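forwarding from the other thread:

> can someone predict this with S-adenosylmethionine?

sure thing
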Amino acid sequence: MRGWLYDRLVAGMTTDWYREVLVRLPDGARLLDVGIGTGAALARCADVVRAKRLDVVGLDIDADYLERCRTEMANADLTAQVVPVLSSVYDHEGGPYDAAYFSASLMLLPDPVAAIAHVAAQLTPEGRVFATQTFHHRRSALLERAKPLVRHFTTIEFGRVTYEDDFRRAFADAGVELMELTTMSGTRRSSYRLAVARVGDHGDGRGCSAA
Ligand SMILES: C[S@@+](CC[C@H](N)C(=O)[O-])C[C@H]1O[C@@H](n2cnc3c(N)ncnc32)[C@H](O)[C@@H]1O
C-alpha cells in the first residue's frame, strides 16, 4: 500500500525528471541513484537505460520500497543493469561512478552538504552530480512548517521547502561546482528544476571549490 501510494504521488512526477537526466549520461555510464525508492520512475525510463547500456546502483534506506523496486526492475527487464542496495547514502562506498543522481531526495536528507561531498568523492574526475527537485520562490514560514507534516498523511517524506540560495549554498559548502540550474517547468510560486554539478580536479585528487 505504501509503495502503491508512493508510485501514484511521486513517480508520476519524477519519471520526466529521470528521463531528463538519463538522456544526458554518456553511453555505458555508471550511475549512483541516491534514494531510488520503488524504482517506478526509473523503470518507466527502461528504454533509455537499455539504449544507453547504463549500469545503475540504487540506494535506499526503506526496505519496503526496495522490495517493490526489485519487482519493478524484474518487470522492466532491468535486473542485469540496476542493482538496488539497502543503504544510507552516508554509508555507501562504491564507484567510481560517472554520475550520482538525487531525484527528490537531496534536500530531505539530514545533511545535504555531507551527502553531496560523500558521493562526489566516489565520482570519476569528469563525473557529475545531478539533482532534480521542487524549488519555492518566496520564503513562507507556513509552508516550511506544513511540508514536513505531509508525511503523517501519506507516509512519504517530502523533505523541507527548498529555496535557490539554500540549495546553491549546499553545493558550495560541499566544494562541488554547480554548473547549471535549469527550470524544467514551473508556476509563479514554485518550479521543478534540474541541477548539474561537477567535482573537477586539480590534478592532486582534490575537487575544485565552487565559484
Ligand atoms: C521522494 S523519494 C524519491 C524517490 C525517487 N528518487 C524518485 O524520484 O521517484 C526519496 C527517497 O529517498 C530515500 N532516502 C531517504 N533518506 C535516505 C538516505 N539517507 N539514503 C538513501 N536514500 C534515502 C527515501 O527512502 C525515498 O525512497
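The first strand starts at residue 30 and ends at 34. thats all i got for now
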